[in-house]
Amino acid sequence: MKRHFKLTTALLVLSAVLVGCNDSETAGKAPAGAGAGAERPPSPVSVVVMKKAEQPLTSLLPGRAAAFQVAEIRPRVSGIIKEIAFKEGNEVKEGTLLYKIEDDTYRAQVAQAEASLAKAEAGVPSAEANLARYERLVGSGATQIEFENAKVTLLQAKADVAEAKAALNAAQINLDLTEIHAPFEGVTSASNFSIGNVVTANQTDALTTLRRLDPIYIELTESSANLLRLKQAIAAGRMSDGDETADIKLTLEDGIEYPHVGKLDMSEMAVSETTGTYSIRAVFDNPDNLILPGMYVRATVTVGKENGYLIPQRAANRDARGELTAKFVNAEGVVETRTFAESAVSGNNWLVTEGIADGDKLIVDGFQWIGDGAPVAPVEATVDDKGFVVETPKAPETSPAAKP
Fold it and tell me: What percentage of the chain has pLDDT greater than the value 70?
């Protein structure tokens, strides 16, 4: 029995040795390319082929909206407010009645002035007749002094008439000023006075404020340092001056782009001593009163043009020194990072003039997970005008293989 156990054990050991030899032979016969197949294939990345062209240089400026016209409505005569004829906060047309002041006193002044004018006019015919009589009697009983006195009396009578007419005109003006009308089309604010309140001529407190909102002004600020750099670039011939009639685009506080474009209205020819900025004013159509005075906005202004290459903002980063960086696919098909010491803004892109050549491939999508030296498979793509969506052309469809 012991011999049987020893024989069984020997057979098991021999079987294990034979199996090991077979596995070794099988591994040795494995294809030599199996290890190479474990390497990762090149990662596909979306690229844009660079091409130099003249591009607009833009500047993103902060700004505030301001009414196109503003008028603080004040009374020009004193009295008690009899009527408020407008609805607060609504639009009114030019000439619309806003306030009515009690006019009894002013009507009485007009009547008194009319009576004074009638009295003055009544004295003119008598003075004219007296002058004519003395003129006939000069040299035959009337003295020259009497004739001269009659002439002066007529002149005084006519002067009294002119004075009475002026008084009547002033009284009529004051009567008309008891009605306060809108000087232009606009939107009213809340009324600061109520019916029955006493107001005085040219008082400090305004009755209400009228604002014209269509069109509307946008007051922008730009640093004087940027202005100097712009002038130096133009003087050096590196770029052309911006067109003052170029469109200006707005972005509202909620991030929505304003549908209307504006035009440059004026720029201040002085720099603020406290902030080091100068002011630019643009004018925009505002038919729906979407922009209200005091709103904060951001404006994209074209300040010039320069030849260079556009790098979409989505494809760029900033290093620790604040310099612009972007990743490219070089001639060997691997990733390399390029740094640009100088860059400018052109819409939703960065504009650079050095470090790129026509035909270079800029990685615009997929670069977040790859490093320098990594092999990649570039796929040409396009970036839309807003610089956010990458549209990759679809590969052409292939016909199915013919069946044998």
Answer: 79
Least confident segment among 6-15, 60-69, 207-216, 256-265: 6-15
State the amino acid at position 168 in one-letter form. Answer: L
Q: Report the Cα–Cα distance between both ends of the chain, in Å, rounded.
A: 66
User: Is the Cβ–Cβ distance between 68 and 158 less than 8 Å?
Assistant: no
Number of domains composing the chain: 3
Same domain, 135 and 96: no
CA distance linking residue 108 with residue 269, whole number of Å: 54
Torsion of Cα atoms, 94 then 98 then 103 then 107, to 10°? 10
Q: Is the pLDDT reported for residue 263 higher than 80?
A: yes
- Looking at per-residue pLDDT, the higher value among 250 and 397 belongs to 250
pLDDT one-digit tens code per residue, 107-119: 999 999 999 999 9
Phi first, then psi, for residue 388 (nearest 5°) are: -120, -40
CATH at residue 352: 2.40.30.170
Whether residue 92 sits in one domain with residue 182:
yes
Q: Is residue 8 part of a domain?
A: no
Instruction: List alpha helices for 177-260, DSSP H.
Output: 224-235
Q: Provide the H-helix boundaries in 140-196.
A: 144-176
Show the CA angle centred on residue 148, arms to residues 146 and 151, nearest 5°: 110
